């Protein structure tokens, strides 16, 4: 619901911050600054404004920066997602695309 109601308030670039969150929430891989700039270049005056917005969203806990790792050559920004709670006995999480790494076998009900 916060996305529908405009969670970012009346700040100067609140609409751009909401657009960044929207773009990142649709992405499955980290997006770099160049990819984000392509999405919001018409709304901002200069790339430095995008960097300030990204830093503010990181400090607010909305997005995170993913550095290049040993096994992955991808780096960029991702939205912060809630951890999937897989403690429920009655849900088969293997059917969810996001939970492929957290497969929990179903227990028989006695």
Strand-helix topology:
Layout: H1 2-5, H2 14-26, H3 33-40, H4 47-59, E1 63-66, E2 76-79
Antiparallel strand pairs: 1-2
What's the gist of this structure?
It is built from 4 helices and 2 strands.
Task: Provide structural commentary.
The chain is built from four helices and two strands; from the N terminus they run ααααββ. The chain is mostly helical. The chain has two domains: 78 residues, Orthogonal Bundle (Arc Repressor Mutant, subunit A), CATH 1.10.10; 29 residues, no CATH class. It has a two-stranded antiparallel ribbon with strand order 1-2. The chain is elongated, with a radius of gyration of 18 Å. It starts with a helix and ends in a 31-residue tail after the last strand. The model has no long low-confidence stretch (mean pLDDT 81).
């Amino acid at each position: 619901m916060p996305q529908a109601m405009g969670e970012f308030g009346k700040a100067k670039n609140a609409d751009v911050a909401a657009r960044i969150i929207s773009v990142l929430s649709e992405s499955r891989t980290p997006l770099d600054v160049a990819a984000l700039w392509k999405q919001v270049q018409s709304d901002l005056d200069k790339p430095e404004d995008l960097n300030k917005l990204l830093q503010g969203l990181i400090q607010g806990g909305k997005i995170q920066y993913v550095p290049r790792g040993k096994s992955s050559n991808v780096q960029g920004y991702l939205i912060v997602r809630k951890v999937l709670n897989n403690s429920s006995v009655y849900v088969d999480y293997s059917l969810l695309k996001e939970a492929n790494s957290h497969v929990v076998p179903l227990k028989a009900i006695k």
